[in-house]
Design brief:
Length: 247
């Protein structure tokens, strides 16, 4: 069996993805490190939007929620239901992780459609949604993989690895490769859809700038929300799968 070489090759391919560039980018040189400044800038904006919204909404919590507090309680309930459906009764500790993933991706995706990033001039490259960069989506996918393995190991210990020979040892190579291909699938799905949405809008704006791009932008908002939901749902499903030990 060529399980180990295939696994190493898959990991190397995932690492090499971080070097993929679409267009020209803006970097900061910090010591011996080259930092992708575009992603950091837009990610900080998204984080500031999330933190600012929460602080404003719940600064004066009410027994009977109204306005922003009511909205965020609804979002929390939605994330709890999603986590419980995919993970099971032990979903509680994973709500913050799933919620953070969902909200960060959701706001990042929408920022690409609603915020005029491209009017901000940079020495090189241009700003875009954080999820429009393969580095961001790979990082999110790898975090999901870490959570996936942690959930299984924390519940079952080393016995967790017994799942790789279930239902038969013959499936060992496939079961191993499955875990390495999950982050690849998560990262490419999110990156590809967000990049495609933004490219379609840009092309239509350049061709028919007055009317046609508007419905396409609304469609982009819808698909961006769906992509955030898909990522969070799959992350929760993988965690639940590792804890239950079934496929």
């Amino acid at each position: 069996m060529n399980v180990i070489p295939c696994s190493i090759k898959t990991l190397k391919g995932l690492y090499d993805i971080s070097g993929v560039e679409v267009g020209q980018h803006f970097y900061w040189q910090i010591g011996g490190l080259q930092v992708h400044a575009q992603v950091l800038i837009t990610s900080w904006v998204v984080i500031a939007i999330l933190l600012g919204s929460v602080i404003l909404a719940v600064r004066n919590p009410q027994t009977i929620p109204t306005g922003g507090q009511n909205f965020f309680e609804y979002v929390l309930e939605f994330i709890r239901d999603l986590s419980k459906t995919q993970i099971g009764e032990e979903y509680g500790p994973w709500v913050p992780f799933i919620g953070t993933m969902f909200l960060f991706i959701f706001v990042s995706n929408w920022s690409g459609a609603l915020l005029p990033w491209k009017i901000i001039q940079l020495p090189h490259g241009e700003l875009a949604a954080p999820t429009n960069d393969i580095n961001t989506t790979v990082a999110l996918a790898l975090l999901t993989s870490v959570a996936y393995f942690y959930a299984g190991l924390s519940k079952k210990g080393l016995g967790y690895f017994g799942k790789y020979i279930q239902p038969t040892p013959i499936l060992l190579p496939i079961n191993i490769l499955e875990d390495f291909t999950k982050p690849l699938s998560l990262s490419f799905r999110l990156f590809g859809n967000i990049l495609a949405d933004e490219l379609v809008v840009v092309v239509l704006v350049s061709l028919v700038p007055s009317v046609v791009p508007i419905p396409v932008m609304f469609l982009g908002l819808f698909t961006s929300g769906i992509q955030a939901l898909i990522f969070a749902t799959l992350a929760a499903a993988y965690i639940g799968e590792s804890m239950e030990g079934h496929h």
